[in-house]
Specification:
This protein is an all-alpha fold. It has one domain: Ankyrin repeat-containing domain (Serine Threonine Protein Phosphatase 5, Tetratricopeptide repeat), CATH 1.25.40. It has eight helices and no strands. The protein is globular, with a radius of gyration of 14 Å.
């Protein structure tokens, strides 16, 4: 079940990047390693957040996914959701306690990237988060 393709992706990675929440839950129940990383350091949560699959993100968070795992470039799930303008996904990560002050290897935070891209709702959610 933990076989990886040439990019280091597992079946769970594929389910999460496509937003197939039920499939992801089935794989988790069968023992898929939630914190497995692909060659770029992305976890299933990172990929689901990158694509804005909020329900999949919530399922992974409910299963205790590491919400602040960093990819090779230092980006977290919250940073990616904020950069791509996935408001509901960013809000779910913040509600789960994701670190809004986490910095990528370039020093970027979720707030910086949301602001850079003009994602006002996300910027406000980040400012309001404690």
């Amino acid at each position: 079940m933990e076989a990886k393709d040439n990019y280091g992706l597992t079946a769970l990675h594929f389910a999460c990047v496509k937003g197939h929440t039920e499939t992801a839950q089935t794989l988790l129940t069968a023992g898929a390693l939630m914190e497995a990383k692909d060659n770029d350091g992305y976890t299933a949560l990172t990929l689901a957040s990158f694509r804005g699959h909020t329900e999949t993100v919530k399922a992974l968070l409910a299963a205790d996914a590491e919400k602040d795992a960093k990819s090779n470039d230092g980006k977290t799930a919250l940073i990616w959701a904020s950069f791509h303008g996935h408001t509901e996904t960013a809000q779910a990560l913040l509600a789960a306690g994701a670190d809004k002050e986490a910095k990528s290897n370039d020093g970027d935070t979720a707030l910086y990237l949301a602001s850079y891209k003009g994602h006002t709702e996300i910027a406000q959610a980040l400012l309001d988060a404690e």
